[in-house]
Specification:
With 393 residues, the protein is α/β, with parallel strands linked by helices. It has 12 helices and 13 strands.
């Protein structure tokens, strides 16, 4: 294995940055670029922390500590100034180190450790990106059980199991995975609706803090505003959008036009849409035209301002908007009903966290290929690639 390095901390300025170095020549390389403090001989022992300088000839780049994490695996902790980090990385590169991204280096480390299969490697990488504790547990279950065990069982019992049975099971896994990915990677919830319907107030109510400016002036929100919150096992990214006008508003209002076009683009990435309508306005004022952009999306219609006299008749709504909740974002009444509805429509309350799921695009694409598998040989080829992808060996 050659020597690889990556910056493991986030981009931007920070107090401390960490550069990880991995490879069978990593120790030899560090003896060239690291000068320890004191007169004791330089020794790299697992668990030891060394203090010294990263040097370039007679020039000191930065004073650092080096953690000896395992044979061939070291962590340089330096000052978090991006310029210093870049200078150290370039110094390593001049010494023959291959520079990688953090994810690429993690993959290298896991590959060297040789987990049971590719799914296990992907699971250990995906755990770092999980947004909820339940999501982390669901991924961890796929390493030795879950999808790994199911795929191994398919290979072992391919002669005893019909191709149709495997196809049925793979379809079930794909369906469950859509819900699982919301728990693991988070759910994007977009708030849309006519101007002054209370979208910003609702975002503040769900987020539990003031994120959006709230006024009675029509069209206060001209751009999107983002906040996060936790509802049960779901991590939600809430996006408050500019109010959608009839026919996308006044064509002379360039800023308003741009804001509403941005709203339409945001709708494309939504996992769930909260259509916020004013309960105090008659249904005749609801413009059905802008809901054409929500076709195929999960929608909860929020009849807001229920603290005011009820005028809106939800029975007059189109069928795809009939899943409704009546509430007052201003007063906070009905918010628990909305939270329950969000969990219900996302199916997160019924999923078994121990069941097999696919959690990467690679796994999903391979399972989808079972639909077109015409022979046992094709099925074996797909399962083998699922367990041992050539990109990870």
């Amino acid at each position: 294995m050659n020597c690889f390095a990556a910056v493991m901390t986030g981009t931007g300025t920070g107090a401390i940055a960490t550069i990880q170095i991995v490879g069978n020549s990593a120790q030899a390389l560090l003896t060239k670029v690291f000068r320890p403090v004191g007169t004791k001989p330089l020794k790299f022992e697992t668990g030891q922390i060394l203090l010294g300088d990263i040097i370039d000839g007679d020039k000191t780049i930065d004073r650092v500590t080096i953690g000896c994490e395992a044979p061939g695996i070291f962590a340089i902790h330096c000052h978090g100034n991006p310029l210093i980090v870049e200078m150290i990385m370039q110094r390593l590169k001049l010494c023959g180190v291959t520079l990688l991204t953090a994810d690429q280096l993690r993959t290298k480390i896991l590959t060297v450790e040789k987990p049971n299969n590719t799914i296990a490697i992907e699971a250990k990488l995906a755990q770092l990106k999980a947004k909820t504790l339940l999501g982390t547990k669901m991924i961890a279950n796929q390493i030795d059980a879950g999808l790994s065990k199911t795929a191994m069982d398919w290979l072992k019992k391919i002669n005893e199991t019909s191709l149709d049975e495997i196809k049925t099971k793979s379809t079930q896994i794909l369906q469950a995975s859509q819900t699982a990915k919301l728990i693991i990677y988070g759910c994007i919830v977009v708030l849309v609706g006519p101007p002054n319907s209370g979208k910003s107030t609702l975002l503040n109510c769900l987020a539990g803090r003031q994120k959006a400016i709230v006024t009675d002036i029509k069209g206060t929100t001209r751009d999107w505003i983002e906040a996060t919150c936790q509802i049960g096992s779901l991590s939600l990214t809430l996006i408050d959008t500019a109010g959608l006008e009839d026919g996308l508003g006044d064509p002379q209002d360039i800023i308003g036009q741009a804001a509403q076009e941005k709203t339409l683009k945001i709708l494309e990435q939504a996992n769930l849409i909260l259509l916020v309508l004013d309960n105090n306005q008659p249904v005749e004022k609801f413009d059905r035209q802008f809901t054409e952009n929500m076709v195929g999306k999960e929608i909860i219609t929020v009849l807001n301002k229920s603290d005011l006299p009820s005028v809106f008749d939800p029975t007059q709504l189109p069928e795809n908007l009939s899943n409704s909740v009546r509430m007052s974002a201003k007063e906070g009444t009905g918010i628990e009903d909305l939270k329950q509805k969000i969990q219900q429509i996302s199916n997160v309350t019924t999923i078994d966290p121990r069941q097999p799921i696919c959690f990467t695009a690679r796994q999903e694409n391979l399972l989808k290929q079972f639909k077109n598998a015409q022979s046992e040989q094709q099925a074996v080829s797909i399962i083998t690639e699922l367990l041992n992808d050539r990109l990870f060996v």
